[in-house]
Amino acid sequence: MPVKKQEIKVKYALLEALCKVHAPSGSESTMKEFLLSYIKKNSKHWKYKPVVVAGNDLQDCIILKFGKPRTAIYAHMDSLGFTVRYDNQLVPIGSPDAPAGTYLVGEDSTGAIRCKLQYDHENHALFEFGRTIDRGTTLTYEVNFKEEKDFIQSAYLDNRLGILNALHVAETLKDGLIIFSCWEEHSGGAVPYLAKIMFEKYKVKQALISDITWVTDGVHHGKGVVVSLRDRNLPRKTFLNQITKLAAQSKIPFQLEVEGVGSSDGRELQLSPYPIDWCFIGAPEEGAHSPTERVHKKDIEAMIYLYRYLMEKL
C-alpha cells in the first residue's frame, strides 16, 4: 500500500530557501554547509537518526547512512550559472537557458552583485553592470520563487526539488544511503568516488536518481512522478522492471519516460567499474534550465511518496 498522504506536508518554505542558496557547479560548499546545518537541527525529529559522513575526503559531498542500507538515493547539490571571464564576458556553467535581461547575482571582493545578462551578435553571454567584476566570480539567476495553487515556479527547481525529496525521505528512512553529489550540471566528477564508497564500504548495488526531468509530448504536468526508462543512457532492464512493478503496486501516480538525450548522476554510476543498477525518478518540469522552471505540486507529492515506498521495498 502507498504511504498515506496525510503523513507528508511538503515544505515549500524549505524549497524556496534551497533555491536561493548560491551553489553553482564547483561552488557547492555553500549548499553543503546549508544541508549540514539543516540535518543537525532537524534529524533529531526523524524516525531514525543517520550517520553523517562529510569532510575533506568527500570534498563538498555528503553521505547519510541509515541502518543497513540496500539502496542509495543520489541528489546533486549544484546548479548551473556563469563564470566571469575578462572584461564583461561570461562563460556558462552547465547549460543555462535564459533570455537577455535576466538578472544574475553573486558576490566578489568589492561586494554584492546584481547584474543583467546580455548577448552579443554571436550569442556569447555578457554581463551589464556598473563596475568590473572579479575574474572567476560565479553568477546565478536571481530567484523569484512563486507558489501558486497547483504549481511551483522558480529558478533551480532542478535540482533543489531533488534535494527536498531526499530530505523528506530522510524523515522516515530506516535503511538506506542518501548521497548529495557535486558537479552534475557540468559533466559530473564526484560520482566515481562516491560510487566506490557506496559499493566497497557499504555494499550497496542499486541507486535511485532524485532529479528533475522534462514535460514533453509524452510526459505531462499533474500526472505523477516520472520513472525514466532511458535517456542518453540505458539503465539495466531487469532493474527497471523491478522499479515499474513496485511503482504499479504502490498505486502512486507515475508516468514512464523514454528519451534519447539528457543525462544525470546515473550516467557516472553506469560508467563506473562497479555493477550498480540505477533508475532516474523525478517530477517533470517545463522551462528547464531557465529562471522560470515550473513543476506541478501533485508531481512533487507523488515523487516523495514513491521514493518512500521504493526505499522500503527495494
- Oligomeric state of this protein: single chain
Q: Termini separation (Å)? A: 14 Å
Number of strands: 19
Element-by-element helix/strand order: HHEEEEEEEEEEEHEHEEEHEHEEEH
Q: Can you put this structure into words, describing what you see?
A:
This protein is an alpha+beta fold and 314 residues long. The chain has 2 domains: 5-79 and 146-313, Aminopeptidase (3-Layer(aba) Sandwich); 81-141, Beta Barrel (Elongation Factor Tu (Ef-tu), domain 3), CATH 2.40.30. The chain is built from 7 helices and 19 strands. It has helices at 12-19, 29-42, 157-170, 191-201, 237-250, 265-271, 297-313, and strands at residues 51-53, 62-66, 72-76, 81-84, 90-93, 103-107, 112-119, 125-128, 138-141, 146-147, 151-154, 176-181, 206-210, 213-214, 225-230, 254-258, 277-282, 284-286, 293-296. The strands form 3 sheets. It has an 8-stranded mixed beta sheet, sandwiched between helices. The chain has a 6-stranded antiparallel beta sheet with strand order 5-4-9-6-7-8, with no helix packed on it. The protein is globular and about 55 Å long. The mean pLDDT is 96.
